[in-house]
Design goal:
With 254 residues, this protein is of the alpha/beta class. The protein has helices at residues 50-57, 80-90, 106-115, 122-135, 151-164, 181-196, 208-212, 228-253; strands at residues 6-18, 23-35, 39-43, 65-70, 73-74, 91-94, 169-173, 201-205, 216-221, 224-226. Bound molecules: adenosine-5'-triphosphate (ATP) and magnesium ion.
Length: 254
């Protein structure tokens, strides 16, 4: 556990959502270790807990129980302000919907998270922003506003924003979900290039084709990490159930 190469260590993570009458077990006994430089995909069907898991990894949400060590620090029981600080320094987020701020320029969007870092002056921030935009091939659009960019370009800016803080890990939630296949492939190529440059990346996707591109594939089903064989079997059973559901009314209509 104290291995300096371990960026993330989750042990026995459970997440239970309590709403009026229903208790949803979104994650049950999740154990996951991610090492420095790994490129991991987490995939599984809708509702299996992918976003919940990524939110916990990114310190946006807390687990109901279990332990979470991020870069050697126990982060499971931090106060929300301490969590925000760790998040800002250690985590780079890439969201499906880009989440850029419309009335800030590209440059200002990338700089914004850095302004919350007490340890960085304006010069350092400017250098980081320029470097990050250069890396994603968007330096020539620094003064544009998000609405003036294509979806693929906006996502590249979002990747630059995530990179600028030099985080321990990049977390991406369906980063290609709002893009056409061409732009989706460009974003995947960019993530691949970052990985080859040493970045640690964890990407959530329900798109099997994109999951296949990563070095390590984690399969989630019904809130649990399962091995490949189990995953294939459970998916097949799920599809058969769906086919049966769809098949019935169709047959009845004939
Ligand atoms: N805030 C919440 N309150 C109650 N239940 C929730 C909440 N967030 C998620 N859930 C439930 O937890 C389960 C996992 O949801 P999650 O969003 O993590 O799935 P997902 O794998 O990301 O799905 P998708 O592929 O559709 O994005 C679902 O059953 C969902 O209904
Ligand atoms: Mg999701």
């Amino acid at each position: 556990m104290n291995d300096t190469n371990t960026v993330i260590a989750l042990n026995g993570i459970r997440k239970v959502f309590q709403t009026d009458e229903v208790e949803t077990h979104a994650l049950s006994d999740v154990n996951l270790e991610i090492k420095k430089g790994e490129y991991v995909s987490i995939s599984g069907p809708s509702g299996c807990g992918k976003t919940t898991l990524l939110s916990i990894l990114g310190l946006l949400d807390t687990a109901t129980s279990g332990s979470f060590v991020l870069n050697g620090h126990d982060v499971a029981s931090l106060s929300s302000s301490a969590r925000a600080q760790v998040r800002n320094a250690e985590i780079g987020f890439i969201f499906q919907a880009f989440n850029l701020i419309g009335d800030l320029t590209v440059q200002e969007n990338v700089e914004l998270p850095l302004t919350y870092r007490g340890d960085m002056n304006a010069n350092e921030r400017r250098t980081r922003v320029a470097e990050a935009l250069e890396r994603v091939g968007m330096a020539h659009r620094a003064r544009h506003y998000p609405a003036q960019l294509s979806g693929g370009q906006q996502q590249r800016v979002a990747v630059a924003r995530a990179l600028a803080g030099r985080p321990a890990i990049l977390l991406a939630d369906e980063p290609t979900g709002n893009l056409d296949s061409r732009n989706g492939e460009a974003v995947m190529a960019l993530l691949d290039e970052l990985h080859k440059g040493g970045a640690t990346i964890c990407m959530v996707t329900h798109d099997v084709r994109y999951a296949e591109l990563t070095e390590r594939k984690v399969r989630l089903f019904d809130g649990r990490i399962v091995d490949e064989e189990t995953f294939v079997r459970l998916r097949r059973e799920d599809e058969q159930r769906l086919d049966a559901l769809i098949g019935q009314p169709r047959e009845a209509a004939v």
